[in-house]
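Supplementary Note 3. Input sequence used for the single-chain structure prediction.
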Amino acid sequence: MEEAVTHIERVRPSADIRAELASAGRPVFLAFSCGKDSLAAWLALRDSGVDVVPYYLYGVPGLRFVEESLARFEQTFGVRIHRLPHPSLYRLLNNFVFQPPERIAIIEAARLPSPSYSQVVGFLREDLGLPADTWIADGVRAADSILRRLAFQKHGPMKPASRKVSVVWDWRKAAVMGRIERSGIALPPDYDWFGRSFDGIDARFLGPLREHAPDDYARVLEWFPLAEMDLLRPGL
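The predicted structure, written as discrete structure tokens, is reproduced below.
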């Protein structure tokens, strides 16, 4: 395997970072999206002997295709994947996104919180009794974009203040796909339907969802009744 973003100076290779996490002998959270990068991160951490505590942040509760994918990954790795509401779910509801007028007063009366990402993960950490300084791993990679590359060069892949660590930051796509192929683990249907992991309720996801998983499409509309209006935009 070639971990190839080597031109970024003064940044530790991800292999060294994973070795450090393993030597600490402590559990590490993994922000797991069911996508290829987070799956590669999980495999890389497991290869290094790190105890992984994965969690999934859902934008719409109870989508069957998501739950089926999570169940398959749980069976494959033999580890429970904790489900938590994504902060964007609260943000969309509190801002009445894709909500009909008759729901506005109901949402206002509910006085929903507006938790941050760190707060949501903090609730899980407290529930599991893990230390406040537990690392939170992700599959963010420098090769994804120029902005991410610059961010890694400026801040590095380990951020002590937020306890976030990008454990495959220097892998290129070929390394990601190669590791997944060697594992024999199939990617979820997201990549056939959307070309990426599911993470929104706009037309990019709603159209394929309506075609391939009509029950889940209906579930999205239960939470966001006017979301189908996004499919009516010109050019779609």
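DSSP finds eleven helices and six strands in the chain. Residues 14-183 form a domain with the Rossmann fold fold (CATH 3.40.50.620).
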